[in-house]
Input
Amino acid sequence: MKTFLLFGILLFLGTCAVQAQVGQDSLDFDGQVSGVGSYAPDNALDLFVGVRYIPRISYGFQLDSATAQRIDFEASANVAGSFSSNTFESVQFRGRLAPYRLWARYTRRQFEFRVGLQKIDFGAATLLRPLQWFNEIDPRDPLQLTNGVYGALVRYYFLNNANIWLWGLYGNKKTRGFDAVETNRRIPEYGGRVQLPAPRGEIGVSYHHRTANTQDLSGVQPIDKIPENRIGLDGKWDLGIGLWFEASYVHKARSLGLLTNQALLNVGADYTFGIGNGLNVVLENLILNFSEKNLEWNDPISITAMNVSYPLGLFDNLSWVGTYNWTTRDPSLFVNFQHQFPKITTYIMAFYNPRNQLGIRQNELVNTFAGPGLRLMLVYNN
Output
């Protein structure tokens, strides 16, 4: 149904394209093609080849120039196919066609209202993110792909850079960020955020309510309606060195053992050293605690992550992301060399991932493999 809706929007925007040639409205059509080849010998299917195309069409028109009133639409699709094999003894093919973004937006000066399938993202952290409540962005993914959420979002920006967010979501089931269990898609979610300027920085307070569903989760009592409340607090300052923290506390109204409560705290810093072309270093540490009782401190997990990035030249960049789980003593490493050709961007990646990795969010769009491996990615944007 959502796929048919997407193509309905694409058809509508295509019709608008004809009108846009006559009027002054804006119409854009672009897309991104990416091809990935990966080899990870520790996996049952060690060879992976995939192709993804994300066509995007957007249309907008101005209602009133004096008040900057404007309406915009955007629709994009995730068209993907992949081939996995174990030295060609066993082969697995997969294909997917699904909406990627599908939203309409009304804006006027200092105000925005957006409804549909969209990305919602906020917070100060960059690698280990307690406030990654509505997306699945893997910081190691050069394309920053993530599924969106269905809902409505209102934002108002004050003249002193303070801003207020209000949202309502419906029809979303999958886990996002550090969600321990899925969401009951038939019950609306709602929440909001206030972000305020602070001396040399900013702070934010966020709240979200959803109804969790454990019917598809093994090992816990199957309950389809579990009220869950979460509150987040974050702040970021530029003191020559960038400093930030991000915290989240999640409480479920029904007992799920250690999954009843989650407390997450991230502290981080970044600095660009004046070495060569500029060496940027990001360091974060995340403390993650699960508990059955409210505010109980119960053998927390500590994870440290570091991202180092260095531009080798105008068209080349070298970066790596490493993590270490101090509780399980599991390290991970991801090295990426990027080269920009005139029309194609090339990524050559090497990685090592533990079998079970906490901290960094992974998603179905990126295909993270356990153990050591190599990956080549080619990206073309039209």
In short: The two ends are 28 Å apart (CA to CA).
